[in-house]
């Protein structure tokens, strides 16, 4: 699962991406990120792992990770092949969600492609290119289905009507993700791989002076009002500061953040929000060897979650011993949690919850 970072030129995408790669997870584990300079892998911040590490004193702590892809080159006219144009759009097609960086900082030394700061105008420029690209896909598909519909078969007629409804939605300047799609058409819509169907969050790049109180910045307020209409999340960060923070070790980072008067770095907030945007949650495993977070899609059942650890775990799945993280902490130890009846035995239909501390039982 990966997220693409998009936005107009000079909004701070590279600065943010540099922060991501500097904060990056141990690259040795991700051979591809040394090969592809446009991919950055970061740990997903999870305080629960620190608490579990205090309890278990493991040799190793392994957080979950996510990937960001730097997708530079989107300019007005990209859908018509301007700039990197179609190449750029094909990179977006490959990601699962989009982080849309929007410039909210003033700086006379850094030119804006449109001459002034205007977050909503910028967003609409980008979103319009994505809408154009989707319209092109739709029109091609509709041409094909129109030919098939000549046979008189009802299913083609219905398909055509559905495609027409998406087209109208796009033509009213709305991304497909805000469209209400009937359940029977969900699968079909998915395989159209439309760009505007992908989940998106907005990342407002603010100036150093606004960190303490981002909402004092009128551009941020404008952006938030816009995002609220499409129920999208807005994360405010100062990319330039994040690049500095990303180079610090844990204790320096804490000190610097408290000096800035903020509790959590913008990048950490962005990573957490991105994880959620992808529909991901973590279940946890804890022992003396390792405390670890494992990434699963929300709604994953116990055997498939076990399969993340090892395919044998899924094949031979018997049951999962599960204690909610909060319960484990309250109890103080696994043994105590067991005595208090907080450790549950769950079967193959159990839907895993975020923060489940889990021990799988399986046959080999
Ligand atoms: P990109 O074209 O979107 O990748 O933008 P860059 O990351 O290259 O940033 C464009 C310019 O804006 C660079 O000179 C950055 O140093 C500057 N910049 C990026 N983020 C910030 C910020 O938060 N505050 C200020 N003042 N400048 C920034």
TrEMBL record:
SUPFAM superfamilies: P-loop containing nucleoside triphosphate hydrolases, TGS-like. ATP binds at residues 10-15. GO terms for cellular component: cytoplasm. The keyword Cytoplasm does not apply. Its cofactor is Mg(2+). Signal peptide: none annotated. Residues 128-173 form a coiled coil. Residues 1-257 form the OBG-type G domain. PROSITE patterns: G_OBG (PS51710), TGS (PS51880). Residues 279-362 form the TGS domain. Belongs to the TRAFAC class OBG-HflX-like GTPase superfamily. OBG GTPase family. YchF/OLA1 subfamily. ATPase that binds to both the 70S ribosome and the 50S ribosomal subunit in a nucleotide-independent manner. HAMAP family: YchF_OLA1_ATPase (MF_00944). This is Ribosome-binding ATPase YchF. It comes from Thermoclostridium stercorarium (strain ATCC 35414 / DSM 8532 / NCIMB 11754) (Clostridium stercorarium). The gene is engD.
């Amino acid at each position: 699962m990966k997220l693409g970072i998009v936005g107009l030129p000079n909004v701070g995408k590279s600065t943010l991406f540099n922060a991501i790669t500097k904060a990056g997870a141990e690259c040795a584990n991700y051979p591809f990120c040394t090969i592809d300079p446009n991919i950055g892998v970061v740990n997903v911040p999870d305080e629960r792992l620190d608490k579990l590490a205090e309890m278990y004193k493991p040799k190793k702590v392994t957080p979950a990770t996510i990937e960001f892809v730097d997708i530079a080159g989107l300019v007005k006219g990209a859908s018509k092949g301007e700039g990197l144009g179609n190449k750029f759009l094909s990179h977006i097609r490959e990601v699962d969600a989009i982080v849309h960086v929007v410039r909210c900082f003033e700086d006379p030394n850094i030119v804006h492609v449109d001459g002034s700061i205007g977050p909503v105008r910028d967003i609409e420029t980008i979103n319009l290119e994505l809408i154009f690209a989707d319209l092109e896909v739709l029109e091609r598909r509709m041409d094909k289905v129109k030919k098939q519909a000549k046979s008189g078969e009802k299913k083609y007629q219905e398909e055509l009507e559905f495609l027409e409804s998406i087209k109208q939605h796009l033509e009213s300047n709305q991304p497909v993700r805000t469209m209400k799609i009937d359940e029977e058409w969900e699968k079909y819509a998915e395989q159209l791989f439309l760009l505007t169907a992908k989940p998106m969050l907005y990342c407002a790049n603010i100036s150093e002076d606004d960190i303490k109180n981002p909402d004092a910045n009128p551009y941020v307020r404008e952006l938030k009002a816009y995002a609220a209409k499409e129920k999208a999340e807005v994360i405010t960060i100062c990319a330039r500061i994040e690049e500095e923070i990303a180079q610090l070790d844990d204790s320096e980072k804490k000190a610097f953040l408290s000096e800035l008067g903020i509790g959590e770095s913008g990048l950490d907030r962005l990573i957490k929000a991105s994880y959620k945007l992808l529909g991901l949650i973590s279940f946890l495993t804890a022992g003396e060897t390792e405390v670890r977070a494992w990434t699963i899609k929300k709604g994953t059942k116990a055997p498939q979650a076990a399969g993340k650890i090892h395919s044998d775990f899924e094949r031979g799945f018997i049951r999962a011993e599960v204690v909610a993280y909060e319960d484990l902490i309250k109890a103080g130890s696994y043994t105590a949690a067991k005595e208090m009846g907080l450790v549950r035995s769950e079967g193959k239909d159990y839907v895993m919850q975020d923060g489940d501390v889990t021990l799988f039982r399986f046959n080999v």
